[in-house]
Amino acid sequence: MTSVSSELADFATGLRLDGVPLRTRERAKDLLFDAVGCAVAGHRGEETPQIERFVERLGGGGNSTVIGRELPSDLLGASLLNAYLTTAVTVCDVYVPAHCHITPEIVPPAMAVAEREGSTGDDLLLAIVTGLEVTSRVARGLDYPSFRARGWHAPGVIGPFGAGAAVGKLLGADLTQMRNILGLAGSQSAGTWAAWGTPTVKFHQSRGAAAGLLAGLLGMEGLGSSPDILAHPDGGILPTYSGGGHASAITEGLGEIWELERISLRLWPGGTPLQTIITGIRELLDSGWDVAIDDIELVTVTVAPGVYDAHARFVEPTGTFESLLSIHFVVAVFLQEHGLWLDHTGPDHYADPKLRAFQRHRVRLKSDPSLTPTTCRIEIKSDQGVAEVTVEAPKGHPDNPPARQQLIDKFLRCTSGRLEAPEDLAAALLKLEDARHVSEVTLPMRKVVV
């Protein structure tokens, strides 16, 4: 019998761009486009200098683009650093069913290898489609409640599969090589929720990208690996990490139903469940409700139990990353500023006594088991009465998709003040197929404002 790993490898090996629907290609370009913008913004991350120093001490050199920086790096260094940059300020994509950020693992190694190989824009786009679909398909096969109960964090566990597949696609892997690449990727799967609330949880994406790069390069050298890394009863990803999982879900409708289209984008910085809450407050403001924060008596936010358990601890954050995980903080800031961006997540906001008092005394977080992880209810009491809103899915979710112009606006906010010509880069990325060499889109990423 053909293993699920072999079926997935066969799909990745045989995929051609003309076999990918236009809608799916456009979605993949949106995800790439968004990832590049997030990576430029990532230079504002608190821990970014630490990762940069780490990469330099690995060896440095090379000619692989580091997004938003003039100085290039080697293949491994660029993959590690670009992955961290993409996730550094908590505004990148997420595949909600497995709580997995995917573009940080896929885009950096694919871009680095495409540069080295002199690939075309079409080549890079096909590799990214392959990597996104492979990762989201493996995610689809997880029994996520069981996976989560074991403490695993998805980007470092399943991200290497898509990253390796993308690299193998660029290097022309045959079926055996691609299957070995998947085996090598799974052999490096790691990362747990014990890191939650610390910068290490973001490094899981970096390590996932690096693991995929290594898997792709080693697989092309002919290094053998498990032919059934996903479903093998003794150490396969599905039985070991998620209690058996759903192997058939990985290949069901493969090439006809595109799981990458279920990847969400975030329009604001902040943890994934916070996007629903921001969407709700934004809807209230857009409907004409407008009450000064000083006139608000109480804000009650009701979320699913898992969301409550993950975020209730961050009532008064003490750093930027904690502020991006704090429902209390995000509610207070959005009500005061009528918006939320990176400028609002520093110490002038998270250490502001007035905001901290509002968070502590006038934001109440509640749990309701009838709600899904993407749903929330918000009730705001003020001297003008009670305003209420229920949100089923945040803006950016596939069930509440953003317009491309919203993604362009976000990209320009991410790149403002850092790149010389962000509008030109945006246009080139959104017409990636026209690039005769990927350097046409990667070299502009190095042109930083002096």
Question: Would you mind describing this structure in some detail?
Answer:
By secondary structure, the protein is an alpha+beta fold. It has two domains: 4-267 and 400-446, 2-methylcitrate dehydratase PrpD (Orthogonal Bundle); 272-391, 60s Ribosomal Protein L30, Chain: A (2-Layer Sandwich), CATH 3.30.1330. Helix content is 52%, strand content 6%. The chain has a four-stranded mixed beta sheet with strand order 2-1-3-4. A hairpin with a 2-residue loop joins strand 3 and strand 4. The longest helix is centred in the N-terminal third of the chain and has 21 residues, at 121-141. The radius of gyration is 21 Å and the shape is globular.
